[in-house]
Amino acid sequence: MIDSHKRRGVMLVFCAPSGAGKTTITRQLLEKDDLISLSVSATTRAARPGEEEGVHYFFKSVDGFKHMIADDELLEWAEVFGNYYGTPRQPVEEALSAGRDVLFDIDWQGARQLREKGGDDVVSVFILPPSSAELERRLRDRGQDADDVIMKRMAKAGAEISHWEEFDYVLVNDNLEQCLASVEHIIGAERVKRERQMELNAFVKKLLTD
Amino acid sequence: MIDSHKRRGVMLVFCAPSGAGKTTITRQLLEKDDLISLSVSATTRAARPGEEEGVHYFFKSVDGFKHMIADDELLEWAEVFGNYYGTPRQPVEEALSAGRDVLFDIDWQGARQLREKGGDDVVSVFILPPSSAELERRLRDRGQDADDVIMKRMAKAGAEISHWEEFDYVLVNDNLEQCLASVEHIIGAERVKRERQMELNAFVKKLLTD
Questions:
Q1: A80-117 pLDDT, tens per residue?
Q2: Which residues in chain A are closer than 8 Å to B169, comparing Cβ atoms?
Q3: Separation of alpha carbons A32 and A28, rounded Å
Q4: Are B169 and A200 within 8 A, CB to CB?
Q5: Assuming Cys at both sites, which of A29, A34, B60, B125 could form a disulfide with B65, CB separation 3.0 to 4.6 Å?
């Protein structure tokens, strides 16, 4: 039914503190839903062995990246440890126009920029851990890290969580299957929102005149 | 996951021309989802055999009904062939506060009144038939009706369809299973919208202070 009427894709933004389960959920979502693809970022950092241009990143010079910023060719961008990372506007716009959804792996700051540029195309979801004890457990499980490292991660998680109120939907991930089901509900619902179905006007006109 | 956090219910409004399949979809939805109940209307018409007060209708005198209008106790109301029909506010508010969703069987005019009174609690879905030919076929299948009766139904359907743009979601029912799935997506998504999860503030506060 969705496919029978051309629709504009959505920009899906999932944010969460590390340890909330975002990586697992997004991986499973991308495996299950062929209409969703992961956004490819532009970066000024050097390509690592095996990384392909246009697949893993669009590799840019610092000057090239700064020109993209100046020309408003980026939906969001940030500088991290001296390297620039950002989302080129054009490939995203092409995907949305073709009725494909684009998933973004960005933090709350990127999400905020994306909302400013993307408007109603942006659907944002915040994923929360079920408890701080569970969050700490998940962060510890990642390896034999020293307590101070864990504490730093907890602090970073807290900073991310503090922006939960900026998001359209909020999921508490105490059950992966239920959380993934909710994500699928959100996407399924956003796809049938009136304003995303670009050919409904023509369809209804035909319905009323035939 | 949804159940683990108290949420405010939603007012679900499905509108469609007769022949679009709304009755089948709502019946299957009510069978599948225990959290949704059908709104009980107040009416001034006489009870028919088997109709129970508070189950099928709240039966009111004309004076009683007019007092409910005057006291703003109705979320929407209309006069049909000399009888009054309307939706009492209190039982709906009690259901929403308890985290139960309420489904309304009303037309576009009722939906418009409901939006004015219900605000963000209202989630409205318009169901369209796949084509005017299919709509006519479905209307004819209902019995050996004369052409002029069919034509009257088609005209009434057209009048209802002309208000499709007032709705949040639009479904084209060319496949009942897909249409029902979309309805379930819509409800599942609306339930995890941030502003409907009333205890998230307390939950996040605990998450950040524990």
A1: 999 999 999 999 999 999 999 999 989 999 999 999 99
A2: 189, 192-194
A3: 6
A4: no
A5: B60
Give me A45's structure tokens: 């950092």
- Contact (Cβ atoms closer than 8 angstroms) between residue A111 and residue A123: no
CA A148 to chain centre: 30
The arithmetic mean of pLDDT across residues B156-177, rounded, is 95
A148-192 tens-digit pLDDT? 888 888 899 999 999 999 999 999 999 999 999 999 999 999 999
Which residues of chain A make contact with B167, given a CB cutoff of 8 A?
194
* CB atoms inside a 10 Å sphere around CB B101: 22
Amino acid at A178: Q
Please list every residue in chain B whose beta carbon sits closer than 8 Å to the beta carbon of residue A173.
1
Q: What is this model's ipTM?
A: 0.91
B21 marked ligand binding residue? yes
CA A165 to chain centroid, in Å, comes to: 17
Contacts 24+ apart (CB under 8 A), B30-35: B30/B103, B32/B184, B33/B101, B33/B184, B33/B187, B35/B9, B35/B99, B35/B100, B35/B101
Residue A19 banded pLDDT, cuts 50, 70, 90:
confident
**CA dihedral angle for residue B141, residue B142, residue B147, residue B150, rounded to 10 degrees:** -110
Binding site, annotated residues of A for ATP = 16-23
Burial of A164 (0-12, 13-18, 19+ CB in 10 A): buried
Q: Please name the member of A133, A178, A192 whose beta carbon is closest to the beta carbon of B169.
A: A192
Domains of chain A plus CATH, in order, are 11-39+100-209 (3.40.50.300)
